[in-house]
Amino acid sequence: MRRLGSMLVGNEAARRRRGARLLTWTTALLLSAGPGGARTTEFCLEGLFDIGVRHQGLRAGVSERTPTTWCVVTEDDGDRVVYRASGKVNPDLDDSWAVAYPAADVVRIVNRDDPPDVEFRGVEVAAAEARRVRRLDPRRLAEELESRGGVIPDLDIELDAGRIAWVTSRASFPLRGEVPVVWRWRWDDPAAPRASLTVESEVVFEASGRWRELAAEEATALWQLSGGVAPIEAPAEQWPARVAMRRIDLDAHTFLVRGVRTGFQHLVVDTEQGLVVADAPAGWVELHHLPPRDLVGGLGVSGLSEGLIDFLEAEAPGRPLRAVALTHFHDDHAGGARAFAAAGAEVLAPADAADFLDRSLDRAPAPPDRLARSGGEVSVRAVAEPLTIGERRPVTVLPMDASPHVGDQLGVWARDADIFFVSDVHVPVDEEPRPRTGRERTECWFAGWATGHLGPNTRVANSHSAVTTPVSRLREIAASPTCRGLTAAR
After folding, report:
1. CA within 13 Å, CB half, 477
2. The domain at 240-425 falls in which architecture?
3. Do 332 and 263 contact (CB within 8 A), yes or no?
4. What confidence tens digit (pLDDT) does each residue in 11-32 have?
């Protein structure tokens, strides 16, 4: 095994040596296509993904490994790519999804089981994103490395006998900052390589790989629209996520900020002591990309929350930031807290996660954000009992019980507007009195909790849906056959 870090600084001799090794392996690979010529190939990784290391588990800082599959379908003679995955993103959600890149500027969310597809056209980043996904197949990565003369920007690659052995890059993660991301490949069985993915030396994914060649009919079907119906057309600028903040007033002193990024909204209450905000948003790094990329590029760890704070300064000029209440420790909801600390806000968090967040938000080296430039630090206050801020326009930060989604969490109750804000435990898709499909355990849990803890006139707002739900409807959900069945099963 030979380290080839010198390739990144233009070492031509290292490039030529590596190119010769790649040529031998890649030529043999292409010759194996047989008389039919170009092939469509699926490469899958099946193993265990640690959502705890990803900071998306039940308990802060605790490993939580779950079966996961990542697959990428590529063509010998084209740049089209399909990415498919199944597994858990959160403890309470088993899911599968597929994204296709059928053209240089098109991204398609594939909904085979529930047509139609959703299609984004005119996406400037589609070709670059497809290329990053394509590299998940180590043979395709080797082909690209050869075609580029041994250099791929932002990737440091090590070979062993002509095969990909290590791929090192860097990415900025909430609650971590900028850290190394490393793929390691083991080729004891060349037909079934072993892979491990580490983030800052912590193993996130361990898996075994396999290839299969798709028959012509299956390959053709990849690019056909689900159900044979026209796709839903979405604005190109919304892929993969965009920032388009707008204010939605709930009463004279309470409002939502929607579009902090696609699918995110936040409650803001203007108490006489200043603004209280629910959650500190951060980005989401796509780990199946090589190199990894944030959904909202260019903002770093704290950029989304810094943008939210700038928006609030424009919408409520002269009003100080009193506090930010982190509903739970998951990094997309808590990872932007450094921005609020830099703005002078008190950082509130669930009691069981407070120490973890206190350590994580002040890790060294600090990300190059406003807090780092000011030389400040984050001090997290644990909330174990109901905490009310303000008297004339009060807001109560309310500890909640453990749910299927997370072990410790907070709700934010705007008392004058009688709006209760939660994150992730209630995300309705419509106003029907039924739990959301696929999230029944969590939705039924929350319906029961809200019925027992909130007033009859309270309306529930959430972080990921425009629908608000009165407690009366939550009572109907809790009494539904689905929820009664889950309660009986427990």
Report:
1. 30
2. 4-Layer Sandwich (3.60)
3. no
4. 333 333 333 344 334 333 433 3
